[in-house]
Amino acid sequence: MIRANLACMDRLSDERPDARPVVYYDGGCPVCSREIGQYRRRAGGEGFEWLDVTRADGAQLGAGLTREAALGRMHVRRADGTLVSGAAAFAEIWRGMRGLRWLGVLVAVPPFDAAAEVLYRVFLRVRPLWRRGASATRRRG
């Protein structure tokens, strides 16, 4: 039950075995953008598609994911179409990164999955402060 609450999951009907996982992130969040930039440059980053939700249209989000949900939490759509979010999304990314695979495996098992999700939810509470700060800086600049 906890696992069901930790990750939003949906199954697409049109599975594409040759597809790469898609990471949906909030490009308007400076912390999020910096972290995604590091993942993209890291060995393994080429194995993902990276989609800034602030620049995406509804069709790019695919089935089962709204713009509001995608901006509210980080999501990854696995190559098989399964959609995961929050700490489970980070675990999915880390499993694909050289040097971080161990962390992705660890964060996917109890009790670490629940602890990681709690930490992610704490981050979600302070994230709007960083977004507002970035907006104010852009207006002044």
Automatic annotation (TrEMBL):
By its UniProt entry, which PANTHER family does this protein fall under? OS04G0668800 PROTEIN, SI:CH73-390P7.2
Instruction: Please give the organism.
Output: Acidiphilium rubrum
Q: Name one Pfam family in it.
A: DCC1-like
Q: Which GO terms describe its molecular function?
A: protein-disulfide reductase activity
The organism's superkingdom is given as: Bacteria
Protein name from the UniProt record: DUF393 domain-containing protein
